[in-house]
Amino acid sequence: MKIAIAQTLAHSDLEHNLQKMERFISEAKSSNAELIIFPEMAYFSGKKSEGLLITQRYTEILERFCKLAKSHNIALVPGTLREPSKDKEKFYNTLPFIDGSGKVLAQYRKLFLYKAVLPEKTYDETQDSKKGEEIVTLNWKGCTLGFSICFDLRFPELFRSLKKRGAQIIFLPSAFTVPTGQAHWEVLIRARAIENQLFILAPGLTGTSGDGSAKYGHSLAVSPWGEVRAHFSEGEGLRVIKIELSEIAQAENKVPAWNCRREELFKIS
Known about the structure:
Layout: E1 2-7, H1 14-30, E2 35-37, H2 48-56, H3 58-72, E3 75-77, E4 81-84, E5 91-98, E6 104-109, E7 115-117, E8 122-124, E9 129-130, E10 137-140, E11 143-147, H4 156-164, E12 169-171, H5 178-196, E13 199-202, E14 206-208, E15 214-216, E16 220-222, E17 228-231, E18 237-242, H6 246-254
């Protein structure tokens, strides 16, 4: 299986972002990728007032991504989208999976909302976002996919639950800040891959986003043994990763950690 990872810069110009994403989709298809994954909020980053308008266009924008997937005949994870909630001032940070026919097969709403007090800015996603309530996996082409977003990385219980549900590849579209990325990004991704013995594909935003915040980039693809199969630095770009699911069994045979778990003491939901 070949999967493309895109690292992008998100502006407040929606049309500019969408046209750039289509170019990456076309490039991924030309490289024989079966699926392309974008970072969190790859399609838009801007001021709160602008974001409210984008949220209202959720259905229209999702349909556009469906048409792109169908026209290029490639599965698409377009990064997260602002999905309206009953609270008109807040949105769900939602990650859809669209197959090559343009059908939405799954949607995951971010479970853990980011909070941080950093030198340059204080963050609190609960002011604008609502928490999701469901762990999501999807069987696609004989592979079980697991869904996570950015700050979710810091909560290993989610990744254990995805493993228990059979996840073999976990997507982690992100928009990590520079300070937290430098300190924690790679070490946490490799840890989640190693302890659960699965693949993690983590595309990240890069550069200064439309909301004025600097993003870390450094997108990663990590194997079940913790090997880094792709590592971006800064700047936009695309990598195509070949996934061999047999590597999961190889890792499990070397160190059968999953079979040594103690659920009578540490229950995994």
